[in-house]
Amino acid sequence: MPSSQPIHICGGCPFISHFSTPSSSTNPVPVKFTVSCCLVASPAAVVNVNVDKKPSERNEVRLGLPSKGRMATDTLDLLKISNLEVWFQRPKDVVRKLVSGDLDLGIVGLDIVQEYGQGNDDLIIVHDSLDYGDCRLSLAIPKYGIFENINSLKELAQMPQWTPERPLRVATGFTYLGPKFMKENGLNYVTFSTADGALEAAPAMGIADAIVDLVSSGTTLRENNLKEIEGGVILESQAVLVASRKSLIQRKGVLDITHEMLERLEAHLRAGGQFTVTANMRGSSAEEVADRVLSQPSLSGLQGPTVSPVFSKRNGSAAADYYAIVICVPKQALYKSVQQLRMIGGSGVLVSPLTYIFDEETPRWRQLLSNLGL
User: Fold this and answer.
1) Which of 136, 73, 139, 78 minimizes the C-alpha distance to 109?
2) Structural contact between residues 58 and 34, judged by C-beta atoms closer than 8 angstroms
3) pTM of the full predicted structure?
4) For the segment 48-63, what is each residue's pLDDT rounded down to a tens digit?
5) Cα–Cα distance, 66 to 150 (Å, whole number)
6) What pLDDT, on a 0 to 100 scale, did the predictor assign at position 100?
7) Percent of the chain scored above 70 by pLDDT?
8) What are the distances in angstroms from CA 200 to CA 91, 226, 227?
9) Pairing label, strands 317-330, 306-314
10) 307 forms bridges with which residues in the sheet?
């Protein structure tokens, strides 16, 4: 029998990292989170079940997230959407279940979408740059031996060592993108060995001549005397929002939830590193105060400052001797902006981080509708 356990998700917490996914070495069990849209703590049920409902037999919209790592913790605040089930899966299974129809939406790395989606037309990228999970899929070779003076993909392809009898040996977990890249770039004598986990030791152990793997800072490559080469980057990757084209068109509610998720993502990314700064300032009129604020280069805000009267009681009636100024300031200009506010008479300066900045309709939504023919 499935077991359940109540969990509370606080709507004010941006990251929730203490959830775990029960698993077995032989039969991984997915964990289902059913989440209500709420700005206060709301109950969510965790149920150990199999993904056995067919798309036509369910009403809920399903979002797949990687079962561990930063990509899961950085997207848990998206759970505050009604009628949305969040399923923690292995990244490659998110893509596979999108193709099979068991999931409607997913957030994974672009490298995973390209590797396991393999150009499937049903997969559609809704948002291509969620600004985390940055890495690149790259070809790396040793710094020593016959590769010491090889610094480009063209030079690697022209090495006389590679023949049908002695091909370039590449270790990789990307068995679709790796061979595709080599073929497209004229490396005809190549053989691939599949591997998961740390590949960097493979050349030193004599298992492979080169590797194709994900690279972030490049530190691990350098520690293993490996180098990237010019023209050897296969794919620049980061977290993306991907959807099933069929679900978006055919399943009720999927398009609406996708719209809401896209709006939240765009607004959250737009607010990154931005602060609301509020201050009081004495002045004769809102226009006079606005002129003083706009005279300072760091105080213009998004479209300009908001200036409103601050009323106090004087001689038995309300009077406005002070005005409240509200502006939006990027993090790198925060201290300079506070100094400039003080210079023009600002006091009682309050600073708050921004979570969302909703602007005009995102172009990505219009592009999605166009891609769907809607």
Assistant:
1) 136
2) no
3) 0.78
4) 334 445 555 678 899 9
5) 37
6) 94
7) 81
8) 22, 8, 10
9) antiparallel
10) 325
